[in-house]
Amino acid sequence: MDGAYRFGAFELQPSSRLLLKDGAPVKLGGRAFDLLLTLVERRDRVVPKSELLDLVWPHLVVEENNLQVHVMALRKLLGPRAIATVPGRGYRFATVIDRDTHGGTVPASPSAPAGSASPRQTATLIGRDNDLQALRDTLGTQRLVTLLGAGGVGKSSLARELADQLAPRFADGAVWVDLTPVPDAAGVVDAIAAATRVSLPRGDRHKALAAALAPLQMLLVLDNAEHVVDGVTQVTKAVHEQAAALHLLVTSQAPLRLAAEQLHRLEPLALADPDAGTAEAEASPAVQLFVARVRASDRHFVLDAHNVHAVVRLTRRLDGLPLAIEMAAARVPALTPAQLDEALRERFRLLTTGDRAAPARQHTLQAALQWTHGLLAPAEHAVFRRLSVFVGSFSLAAAQQVCSDGPDIDEWQVLDALAVLVDRSLVTPPRGEPPRYRLLDTPQAYARQLLAASTEEARVRARHLAVHRLLFETAYEDHLWARRPVLQQRERTNADGDNGLAALSWALAHDTVASLALAPGLAQALTHRHTERFAVLRQTEALLQEDMPAAVRARWQLNYAQFWGHNNPQRSRPHARAAADLFRAEGHAAGEYRALAVVASMLAGASTEGSAEALARMLELEDPAWPAELRFVRHYVQATQLSAAGRFDEALAAGERSMALIRESGRRGRLVHELSMMYLEIMAGRHDDAIQRGLAAMQRLRERVRQGPASGVELLLLGAWLLKGDTAPAEAMAPAVWAAACAFDMQAPTADVLSLLAMHQNRPRAAALLQGYAEAMYRRSGAQRLEMYQRIGEQALAQTAARLGAPELSALVARGRTLPEPSITALAFAAADAPD
After folding, report:
1. Which of 593, 786, 558, 597 is closest to 676 using CA atoms?
2. Which of 7, 216, 299, 611 is least enclosed by beta carbons within 10 angstroms?
3. Closest Cα to residue 800, out of 812, 788, 791, 790?
4. Residue 435 burial (CB < 10 Å; 0-12/13-18/19+)?
């Protein structure tokens, strides 16, 4: 009868819902029939209990023992070995299907495996040339090699190609054993014996198999060993010891842990850089695979400037995992690469189209992860889902603190579980110094689903918050006391910036005090991520309340005052005063000292008495035993004070004293101080000194690839050149300075400088418009116009008035106040003056 499965004396007819034995109907209940049909249709894999409950009892909540009762009934009817139990995972139909009139392929089983020949590679292998060569070389000298990697990374495809290439080396060729359908360790010997066509006598079957294989010169490939790794380990050990001419290649998600085993970990495909152009992207194996698979169904597809960024972003978000990339490619042309990238928010619903000839676990991305996850022990399940709260990389100590929960899973068990997750390629091996781990994006998305479905998400996220609150609070306290050099301090916290942001996001909804306590250290760590640093302070500003702990308020207000600094003294000054008072009440000398430094700097030039008072209190607090890196602050403030009073030579002398303390501390120098020294040199008329200092600072910054700080140096260089009357280098640097100004909110002072440049270029109308724009930007931002830029602006206006006359100048300045940024960009770098 068409559409039937036959096994032994039985025939299963899905369409008529009958089970026949020797042609006669067998009495079988509806649920038992559904359970049997479900297992038969999925006979190439172990079916989890949860999946069986969902399929056989849809929309119903039933106890697991109902499933066990029906399995026992089926075993009684079909035979005790008809349905295998895989502990901790589920059930598998273990009886050989003699005939499948559905037209499907009957999978190999322990008693009737697939043929011994290696399945031929049907698709071009992309991006694996180095792995192929390394494995060829290794198998030339080593007789036991395990090819490790995540599910879907392409281990089987690489092994097939390797077997095809190496088969001629061996007198008895290459033999392929697919272990996917093998239900347990006991079946491994039978699968290998059947594939190699050897008969085994009764007795010790491992020794018998080894003895039978001993005369053979063969490459034996054991594919997909992870679910029966204990059985494979036993067999492999026996065979390796006795069959000296036999070479073994095992593909697995976990190592065998044998002394003779040589491991080769297969990494995901190499990715293109995020900003890669078309030519660079085409060199990336991950992009090559995506394009090749898309062209297989749409020969008109071309990687070009319109889609390259979406394709690069897509392959990066899929971690370079070949299975996921192929599934994504299968969605083209129904979706464009850009639409695919957007749809990855629901990646497990999107990526469901696998190779029909592949095992069922590779028909969807979620099934591939479920297979890997099903091989883990309960403690490893818990650690895996708990690790999903981390963003980016994480340290071992942080993982242990977040994932351990006391008596059930302690820190040592977390360490053991983490080692297993690394072996299974769910977590990247430790990298860097100190070493850090990371969940790849796709496993992390799956782990987050599992955590959300658990009852422990709130507890885990609270631990994640506690760990990072302590990290950033400690880091900020160390900063206040200058216990570590700034660069060392940033290295300590930079790697956890994204984790800090994630912890803050959760705290904002659940723990107001923790949000405020976390913010200063986090903002300090994000010094060079201006937008995110601003967001941290903006999000926490409304939380500040008088009844909060004084220490928490003091740190937050000091960091807020330091952030706004000279750019917005109206915002900065009151918070600095409040922080100084709170630190003084707390007896925190370093905190009060730093807060007073901000107060004195903000009052310099506005209230000489208040500034001098703050400076005197700093001197009273200062301890000669303090680190030089902390003591230099007073000299820096003194230089600011003297500068505001117009005493620039004295200010430079104070600045040099602070630079001496920096050198004493062993630091390479503080850029903000270099900028201040440049500023003072310019104001003192020492333009050549400022230019020399600026060019040296630029060289150091280029070596450290720091774009934001470099823009501040470049702006001062621009001003020094123009005040000196040296237009050529200013013209060359101006476009880069303006681009940086737009990125880092420095448009106002930069427009002042560009206005003077326009006058040097004989473009007075453009200079007037730029002055109007600068005024508008100062007013909009609330930033203080430093004296140097005031001087530059006045010089530009004076020269413009002399050329145009006061009425036209006034009209142009007013018009400039209304111009948008794109118009200013075009105006600043036009070859000719602005039209009437």
Report:
1. 786
2. 299
3. 812
4. exposed
Q: What is the mean pLDDT of residues 164-179?
A: 90
Alpha-carbon span 491 to 434, nearest angstrom: 10
Please name every residue paired with 262 in a beta bridge, in sequence order, or none if there are none.
145
- The pTM for the full model equals 0.67
Nearest 10 degrees: CA dihedral of 705, 709, 711, 715? -140
Q: Report which of 707, 712, 480, 708 is spatially closest to residue 586, judged by C-alpha positions.
A: 480
Spell out the long-range contacts of 646-649 with Cβ–Cβ below 8 A and sequence spacing 24 or more: 648/680, 648/683, 648/684, 649/684
Average pLDDT, rounded, for the chain: 85
Task: Find the Cα–Cα–Cα–Cα dihedral 694, 695, 701, 702, rounded to 10°.
Answer: 150
Average pLDDT over residues 771-775: 94
Mean local confidence (pLDDT), 564-577: 80
Three-state secondary-structure class, residue 304: coil
Q: Take residue 205 and report the two structure tokens written for it.
A: 């079957």
Three-class secondary structure of residue 608 per DSSP: helix
Provide mean pLDDT across the span 342-349: 80
Q: Which residues pair with 117 in a beta bridge?
A: 175
**Pair 600, 641: CB distance under 8 Å:** yes
Residue 123, token pair as written in the block: 């698709």
Phi, psi of 207 (to 5 degrees): -65, -40
Over 80: is that where the pLDDT of 603 sits? no
What is the distance between the alpha carbons of residues 380 and 19, in angstroms, rounded to a whole number? 41
Which bin fits 581, alpha (ψ -120 to 50), beta or left (φ > 0)?
A: alpha
Residue for token pair 């273990």: 94
CA angle 364, 365, 371 (to 5 degrees): 90
Tokens, residue 620: 């009273």
Helix runs in 486-607, H state only: 486-494, 497-510, 512-525, 530-541, 550-564, 569-586, 589-603
> What φ, ψ does residue 768 adopt, rounded to 5°?
-65, -45
Q: What φ, ψ does residue 358 adopt, rounded to 5°?
A: -80, 160
The residue type found at 2 is: D
Q: Which residues of 380-416 are buried (b: 16+ CB within 10 A; e: fewer)?
A: bbbbbbbbbbbbebbbbebbbbbbbbeeebeeebbee
Q: How far is CA 661 from CA 479, 627, 693, in A?
A: 17, 9, 18
Cβ pair 631, 622 in contact under 8 A = yes
- Report d(CA 396, CA 98) in Å as an integer: 52
* Radius of gyration in angstroms for the set of CA atoms belonging to the chain, rounded to a whole number: 35
Q: What angle do CA 156, 159, 160 make, to 5 degrees?
A: 85
DSSP readout, 155-208? HHHHHHHHHHHHGGGSTT-EEEEE-TT--STHHHHHHHHHHHT----SS-HHHH
For residues 423 and 437, give the distance between their C-alpha atoms in angstroms, rounded to a whole number: 13
The residues with which 157 forms a beta bridge, in sequence order, are none
Q: b vs e for 520-549, b when ≥16 Cβ sit within 10 Å of the residue's Cβ?
A: bbbbbbbeebeebbeebbebbeeebeeeee
In this structure, are strands 99-100 and 5-7 parallel, antiparallel, or unpaired? Answer: antiparallel
**Cα 368–Cα 372–Cα 376 angle in degrees, nearest 5:** 160
CA 285 – CA 322 distance, rounded (Å): 10
Instruction: Give 20's DSSP letter.
Output: E
Residue 329 near residue 355 (C-beta atoms within 8 A): no
Q: Copy the structure tokens of residue 156.
A: 């089987």
The two structure tokens encoding residue 816: 């400039």
Q: What is the Cα–Cα distance from 338 to 306, expressed in whole angstroms?
A: 9
Structure token pair of residue 142: 């080593």
Residue 91, phi then psi, degrees to nearest 5: -125, 155
On whether the CB atoms of residues 387 and 417 are closer than 8 A, the answer is no
102-131 burial by CB neighbour count: b if 16+ within 10 A, else e?
eeeebbbbbeebbebebbebeeebbbbeeb
Residues 70 and 385: their CA atoms lie apart, in Å, by: 32
Reduced to 3 states (helix: H, G, I; strand: E, B; else coil), residue 433 is coil
CB-based contact 315:290 (threshold 8 Å):
yes
pLDDT the model gives residue 348: 77
